[in-house]
Write a structure and sequence with these properties.
By secondary structure, the chain is mostly beta strands. Helices cover 11% and strands 32% of the residues. It has a single domain, classed as BH3618-like (Roll).
């Protein structure tokens, strides 16, 4: 299929690579279909591009590459909705924010996107865990408060 994007122009993607988010992304509920696009070879950053809205795209990462102790617990109803029966069936990405004023790059560990690796059903969830926040500095370890402090100091 051919999709139009504001960042990449017209691109061709396989129908089999389209993620289906029944509830859309938080704040972008009208976007139900996305594709993951490589940013550059050998970089951890990818683009989560909306199929149906050319202007909607998010930079995402696999948070485990930066936060090896990161854990996501799915509620039973979320796992059932996604068809995930074991952890190996799930891929996790988190959105990235580049704050030019603060001079840092952060990721949202509180609102990960869970993807069923087999059928590409996906859902953004909000974790009920106070050790995670929406702005964890990429490349630094520590609590959400420590990472925010480090971001402001950068």
């Amino acid at each position: 299929m051919i999709i139009n994007t504001t960042r990449f122009g017209e691109i061709e993607v396989s129908d089999a690579s389209v993620l289906h988010m029944a509830e859309g992304m938080l704040g972008f509920e009208w976007c139900k279909r996305f594709v993951l696009l490589e940013d550059k070879p050998n970089t951890p950053f990818k683009w989560l591009q909306a199929v149906d809205d050319p202007a909607v795209a998010f930079i995402v990462i696999n948070p485990m590459e930066f936060f090896p102790d990161y854990e996501v617990e799915l509620a039973d109803d979320e796992a059932e909705m996604l068809g995930i029966t074991n952890a190996e069936d799930a891929a996790v990405v988190t959105t990235v924010t580049i704050d030019k004023n603060e001079g840092c790059v952060t990721t949202n560990l509180l609102g990960p996107i869970i993807i069923n690796s087999h059928d590409l059903k996906a859902k953004q969830i909000v974790l009920n865990d106070d050790k995670y926040g929406t702005k964890h500095v990429i490349g630094q370890k520590g609590s959400k408060d420590a990472t925010l402090q480090a971001c402001k100091a950068a």
